[in-house]
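I hope you will forgive my troubling you with a question about protein structure. The matter concerns a single protein, recorded as an amino acid sequence and a row of backbone structure tokens. Please examine both parts with care and let me know of anything in them that strikes you as inconsistent. Here, with my thanks, is the record as I have it:
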Amino acid sequence: MAQKKSSTKSGIICLAVIVVIFGYLGYVMGLAPMLQTIMATAHDLLLNTVFFLMAVCVVTGALGRIFVEFGVVNLLEKLLRPLMGPIFNLPGVASLGAVMTFLSDNPAIISLAQDKRFSSYFKKYQFISLTNFGTAFGMGLLVIVFMMGQGFFAAPLIGFFGAMCGCVVSTRLMQRFILKAYPAYAEENACDVSLEEEKEEQVEEKSLFIRILNSLLDGGKTGVDVGLSIIPGVLIISTFVMMLTFGAGEGGVYTGKAYEGVELLPWLAGKINFIFDWLFGFADPHLVAFPITALGAVGAALSLVPTFVAEGWADGNAIAVFTAIGMCWSGYLSTHTAMLDSLGYRELTSKAILAHTIGGLVAAFIAHWVFVLFSLI
């Protein structure tokens, strides 16, 4: 009986929220123009943004697989290993997770963590913090390449530095939260592996041409899968955010064309824009749409950038901040729960989200001020 009452209550709340949101949009825009704009915006995003992002995913996926096949990932892991302990308070092998998530997406750290040989290097509190650590590098290559494709080169690299700083804050803060809640995790091993369980895989020898061909095709196929997976986020989240960000058509008339909206987010951001201006250097309140969208999906957030650049709202500073916060947050609200659940520590989800929220804000703040210093040189 109680369950039925709870279901009825949640249904009423859900219906009320939908009526309020679409009632507001329909009241301002008109019902027919609102529906036309939704369809037109989603269609344009699919054709001109999603397919472009998919192309970038295919290219970067192929490049990433080449790096794995010919030992570049192992080389990077060895070079980065000495930095893991002093900076992130993690074992050296964690650098492999950073490289893999940078070349692909957040969940790559989970596939590594489920390998007993990999997880045996970690204490429990370090092992759980891999969720925050891996997320901060997720889709890093895609984000940087996409930003460079918009005509910016130094700004994305500054943003990458900011993302790494945010990662340090998020990872260490998460470790502190864990140890405060579970002090015993400081000494408990995440996993114990006996020598008998360690087996070396037999690698079939193939010609150089076949190795290159297989790597390119397999990596490209992975890129297609990533490109397909970002479609719902881009079409649903970006369409909704854009309708709350952009204004009416020419002459203030709603015609049902793509990218028309009610300008609610800029209006709200304009009330406290002095905060965003000081923290992130956002000169235009429209730019706040990027970090809001990046909370759920960085692919959807990237779809906003071409319009921001075309409108003249986004400059080098904005691109640096977008890169930092896009990489660091990388849609963590939609992935943290599933990632911690797969590791078996679902109860720590709220702590991971809090730590990563702070880490992303720190990343954007540092990227902004480093870009300011860079501009003075």
Observations:
- Residues 195-203 have pLDDT under 50 and may be disordered.
- The radius of gyration is 22 Å.
- The chain has 20 helices and no strands.
- The first helix runs from residue 2 to 29.
